[in-house]
C-alpha cells in the first residue's frame, strides 16, 4: 500500500466518522432523544421516527451536505449507517473546488490641476 493510499483511507475514515456523528446529531435533535440512544444500525422507526421524520431527515441532510437523495431510493437509507455511507460516497465523488481570489483594481484618484 502506498503512502498516498494510506493517507487517503485515513482521511476518508475521519470524514466518514464525522458524517456519522453529524447524522446521529440530526436524528437525535429531530426525534428529541439523547444522542447516546442513536446507534448506527437502528432503523429510524425503531427510534420513534415516522414518515414525516424521514422526510425531515432527508431535507436536513441534503441541505447540510448539498447533495440529493434519489426519491425513489430514499427507503433504502432508513438507518444512520446507510445515510452516512450515501453521504460519504457522494462527497468523495464531488470535485474539489478551489477558492479563486478576485483582485479588484480600484481606479486611481484623478489629480486635479491647480
Number of domains: 1
The CATH first-level class comes to Mainly Alpha
Per the principal axes of the C-alpha atoms, what is the gross shape? globular
Integer average pLDDT: 77
> DSSP strand (E) fraction?
under 5%
Radius of gyration: 22 Å
Please sum up the structure shown.
The protein has 114 residues and is mostly helical. The protein is built from three helices and no strands. Residues 1-8 and 97-104 have low confidence and may be disordered.
Question: What does this protein structure show overall?
Answer:
This protein is mostly helical and 114 residues long. The protein has a single domain (3-93), classed as Non-ribosomal Peptide Synthetase Peptidyl Carrier Protein, Chain A (Orthogonal Bundle). Helices cover 51% and strands 0% of the residues. It has three helices and no strands. Helix 1 packs across helix 3.
What characteristics describe this protein?
Non-ribosomal Peptide Synthetase Peptidyl Carrier Protein, Chain A; 3 helices; globular; disordered N terminus
Amino acid at each position: 500500500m502506498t503512502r498516498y493510499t494510506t493517507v487517503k483511507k485515513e482521511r476518508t475514515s475521519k470524514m466518514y466518522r464525522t458524517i456519522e456523528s453529524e447524522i446521529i446529531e440530526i436524528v437525535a435533535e429531530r426525534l428529541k432523544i439523547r444522542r447516546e440512544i442513536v446507534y448506527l444500525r437502528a432503523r429510524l422507526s425503531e427510534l420513534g421516527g415516522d414518515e414525516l421524520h424521514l422526510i425531515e431527515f432527508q431535507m436536513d441532510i441534503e441541505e447540510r451536505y448539498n447533495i440529493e437523495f434519489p426519491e425513489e431510493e430514499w427507503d433504502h437509507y432508513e438507518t444512520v449507517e446507510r445515510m452516512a455511507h450515501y453521504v460519504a460516497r457522494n462527497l468523495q465523488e464531488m470535485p474539489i473546488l478551489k477558492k479563486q481570489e478576485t483582485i479588484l483594481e480600484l481606479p486611481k484618484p484623478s489629480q486635479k490641476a491647480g
